[in-house]
Amino acid sequence: ALRKGSDLEKAFATAALVYNSYADPESKLSKAETKSLLQSQFWHFIQGQENKPKYQEIISSLDEESENKINFEDFMILLLSLTLMSDLLQEIKNVKTTK
Fold this sequence. Notes:
Layout: H1 7-22, E1 29-30, H2 31-41, H3 43-46, H4 53-63, E2 69-70, H5 72-85, H6 87-94
Antiparallel strand pairs: 1-2
């Protein structure tokens, strides 16, 4: 469907596909599943973040009432938050593109 899409569109589509493959029939994930998904599929972005207060706040919020469910929008906000604070983001910024 995104054959002619931009790289950014493809990246977001991939995140949506990953989410949907783990989501229940109501398109939701429990907080525990969300934490597991973030740690397994997006670990490059969260690696080394364990000591940062904001990371600890996000992860501890997923540990509270871990059976509660979140929707795709909330998942993407969590993913974006973790990406923005990631050390990997700085490494990505330092790469020069040749396009």
